[in-house]
Known about the structure:
The chain is mainly α. The chain contains 15 helices and no strands. The protein has helices spanning 17-32, 39-48, 58-76, 93-111, 130-138, 142-171, 175-194, 204-207, 223-232, 243-259, 271-288, 290-295, 308-315, 320-342, 352-369. Keywords: Membrane, Transmembrane, Transmembrane helix.
Amino acid sequence: MTSAPSTRSRSGSLPLWPLIAAVCLVAVLLWSGSLRAAAPLLNVIASAASEPNFYSSALSGLGLLAGGALAHWLQTRRRAAQGFAQACGSGMWVPMLASALLGVAVSALAWGWTLSPGTWQPLFAPFVSVSPTIVLMFGSDIPTVLTGGVLGGLVTPGLSVLGASVICPRLGLAPVVGVTAGMALAAVLAFTVCRHLPWLPAPLHLRRPPEPAPTTAPQKRGPVWVLRRSLADFSEAQFFGSEWASLGLIAGALITFLLNPAAPAYGSGLLPQILTAQAVAAVVAVTVWRGRWARRPFYPTFVPVVSVAPACVLAYGGSLPSVLAGAVLGAVLSPPLAAAISARLPADFHPFIGNVAAMAVATASIVPALQLLPGI
């Protein structure tokens, strides 16, 4: 869930056109009814892209990938409409995405046995945790991409499944607490393992001299920037952080809802309430913490969008007080917590660990506390 060390190298990046062709081919084949034997796995991979936002929709996931591909195309050509840079500004969006998709495929193959008819497990976890961050930390060469995919797919799902399906039900906590705590623990384990893998180089930010501190005054962030940043935060958990990717993600979820209201959001029928809570959380967080954005290249305002806000909606049935209270409390409390944890991590641990740890702590604290408010 983002905040990577700043890297600008594009060396070793994989070409974009094979990814676009593969996504289009899969979409056409699924639409036509072909690839029936592989359809369950492909559906898991496509849905995984939207799972962090609580949508769980293959169409929404494909919308995210399409929007991300458009943003990448615009950014490589430096078009005026390119929006916020993806992949933490590293230029490694394609290899990062390749590792993330491989991680989900490995997750489904290695941990699919935990599923039974009518059940859900967080097999999407590698997509937004270990797999892409290994690429963002160590580079875009093929061994690193494969390491991220395989290591993320093997390590992350088990701990997230344990947290969401075993520990959280016994403690009466929202499943997202177990999922994000599992991601954090898995990342600590994975990056510890990475220290001992001889084919991985030193982290990118340790191979380059530190960037000079800015000498100009902090840039002001006006209303248009706040709205753009709020929209981009919808896809920040996937390390896209692009307005175009977010538009594709949301559009796919809405189309799925219009076709079948019970399909997205885990069959809850609460997609409109979830989107409302996420929009409120994003706007409030970016508005409250825009001063931090002005002084830093990144600030984790996306954290409540994919944790506290939607978790409160599901926990309390989408009541208006729960939508507003969860969104506002999450927006005010969770970003500084995430930033504080990330700042205290070892130099070779990706800062996203602080973000997912903050998601677990904030959700575990805020969701139960809301029952004390009237009207919840």
